[in-house]
Amino acid sequence: MEFKFKLSVLIMSLSLTACGGSSGNSSNNITTDTSGGSDDSAENADNSSDDANTSIGDVTTTTGNCVTIARPQVGRIEVTFSKGYDDFTPDSYWETKIIAFSDTFSSIESTSRSGSATGKIINQNISTSTHTIANNFIKTTQGKVTGSSITTDETGKESTEKFNNVTVYSPFTRNAIDRVCEGQTWTNDYDATTTSNVENSAPFTSTFHTSQIYTIEAINVKKTVPAGTFNTVQQTLVDGTTIIRMWGDIATGMNIASEYKNNEGEVITYSELISFTP
């Protein structure tokens, strides 16, 4: 569950981002000032004068409070701590590095370390996606995760397993990018077909259908984590009986914090940014 949660957050953090100006220019310098904003204010950034019912891509919003947020900065390294609150989700540290991001492709290198009373696990992955960007939406059609998992049991014995998973989304999965507005909402309805290739095992293919509801709950929300205080966009993803809430920094596009709740409203996992290297 924790690995699926983190992958969902990675997709959201790559998607809920933008650079100022044209969506085709991902090499703009990123401002790292984390000041501004308030916990309960809808006060806007430099583009706050939009009228209500602004058209954002193929979604009509219900408010004029809009902001433009930064796309991922290539080369940046982020360290995140994830706290598990049930018996099945161990605490873990994640270090991610943005390798590439363009209008058609993205790549992230990540290492996670988790442990429990019965051993520890180290995952090292390269995650890539194929997508298009238009009308303030990023539409992903394929994702790939390649890496290895090193498990150490309670006796100290290590075992390594290499894997290569490819997921095709039909027709696509999408998220907002570039310009977002408070109250904006959209749906995802797609089939995901994953082919898993695990070392010393036969390939396995599975398909599942997903219906999701995304909402931009608030903008200019102050969020304090060990890495600092940031001015964020607060977004939620409702997927069946679970809810993922994420806070993304407007100035840098970083995922500052995120939480995963079950259908009873209980927090299963909470993640927050510990440090980052621009």
3D architecture notes:
- The chain has 278 residues and is mostly beta strands.
- It has one domain (2-277).
- Helices cover 5% and strands 60% of the residues.
- It has one helix and 16 strands.
- The strands form three sheets. It has a twelve-stranded antiparallel beta barrel. The protein has a two-stranded antiparallel sheet with strand order 1-2.
Number of separate strands: 16
> Can you give the mean pLDDT?
80
From the alpha carbons, calculate the radius of gyration and give it in angstroms: 19 Å
Query: What separation lies between the terminal Cα atoms?
Result: 29 Å
Count of alpha and pi helical runs: 1
Poorly predicted regions: 1-11, 15-58
The helix fraction, in percent, is under 10%
How many structurally independent domains? Answer: 1
SSE order, one letter for each helix or strand? HEEEEEEEEEEEEEEEE
Query: What structural class do helix, strand and pairing data support?
Result: mainly beta
Shape: globular
In short:
By secondary structure, the chain is mainly beta.
Question: What tags apply to this protein structure?
Answer:
twelve-stranded antiparallel β-barrel, mainly beta, 278 residues, 16 strands
